[in-house]
Amino acid sequence: MNRVCLLGSTGFIGRSLASHFDQTGVDWVGVSRSVDDAKSYSLELNGVERVIELISDCPVVVNASGSLKPADFATDFPNAMGRFWEDQRQLNNMLVSANVRRLIHISSAGTVYGEARGNGSREDDMLNPKSWYGRSKQIEEALLSETMRKTGGEFVCARVSNPFGNEDASHHGFLDVLINCIRNRNEFIAGFPRHALRDFIYAPAMAEMVANIALSDVSGVYNVACGKSIELEQLLSFVESNFDGVKIKREACICSTDVVSSVISIDKYLRHFGEVEKNNISVYQYVKSELIDIAI
Fold first, then answer.
1. Which CATH superfamily includes the segment(s) 4-163+201-224?
2. What pTM, to 2 d.p., does this model score?
3. pLDDT tens, 243-264?
4. Which residues, at least 6 apart from 249, have a Cβ–Cβ distance to it below 8 Å?
């Protein structure tokens, strides 16, 4: 089995992938800016040259790195773009120096497609990101694809949609933030249009899909999602109806950069790999299990 180098191994998505690799016996090594596990190396402490050596020893590299959030571009656009560009420059230089043969890049399905069209956004749809965060993801995809083309390596892009349920990072994303607010008896501020749709995928299922893609011989773009979107208002109503002491404040929100309807097609993944075999639970099953102690 090919050894995998996991960039961003201590981030939200990286942690899920690392856990899946451990559970399935995949030989892997991690690289991150902040390190708190024995299998990862610190880019800051070990230096770029050592990281290049690590990457060079791995036939497969998974890029789950990225510290910027959508809010960073709204609050300080010049600084966010500066950080984004510097990170891309460093990553591209490392990939070229390490002569990477196969790169799996994690992108954001929830932002790069823009508003959903038809039966769901497909990999060959024109990208139409509304936010600068989404635009940066599109630029990132293009830069890395071109880098791998020039070096003769394989490029695979996994566009991931709204993962939830990472036990090591329970304050990330709409669903887990909602659950933590309820647990702590805090008010949850819901600022989105009533008809907003999201495709949520359970983090272990997401990790399984990305690993299947990474350890195969496919190339190109693959969506990684549940394939079934739900209305956020329906989710909030479910929580209010089934759990005690829930405090939710709805605010009218009209933001030109927010995607309202995110619907993702995973037909391409299903054709190549079939259904996710393990760890795939629904949003409602997850909410029930996490809040069972305060159910009405």
1. NAD(P)-binding Rossmann-like Domain (3.40.50.720)
2. 0.93
3. 888 888 888 776 777 888 999 9
4. 187, 188, 189, 190
